[in-house]
Design a protein that fits this description.
Length: 188
Amino acid sequence: MQSNTLIKIIDIINNYEQHWTKERVKEFRADHKDSYSSLENYSNGEHLEWGLRKDGIAYQKDYPNPKYPKFKIYPHDIIIPPFDDILIDLKLKNKNYGNISISKPEEKKIQYAAGQVTHICSYTYSIDRINNKFTYNVDEIVPCDEVFNNLFGGSDGYKLYKPKKMCTNEQKHGIIDLEEVNKLFEGV
């Protein structure tokens, strides 16, 4: 069962609507980093956390990188005030298999033990083309150790986790593929 705090966070995300203008798309794309294999993967994987931070709903802490001290690491994606002790790593659910991917799980376990990330959030999103907006639907937010104890498959670089649908709302959300995202951003 989810705590009242997690239910409040879920409600915030589920009620968040991200409206896209040409200027917002340009700003979003300008934040693209080389850590993503492509702009398309960046667009699909980062829009929720970017939007929540951009709109002042969430923030993110940085930490010293133990391997490269002059650089910072960001083990979690968002913190939503006033729930500052819940450090969330957002994971978009795979449209074909219903899983989420946990990259570098051994590093994530170390970050969890250090208190740099506390929870994993699985979500999907929908695109409203008429109003140029994205809406979101959380499947679950669970403590990292629950995810770590249920990892399967993958390889040395990543493992998979099958989220459970722990919260519901009346709005039905599908899982959108990259082609849908790219259509919205065409011509920008």
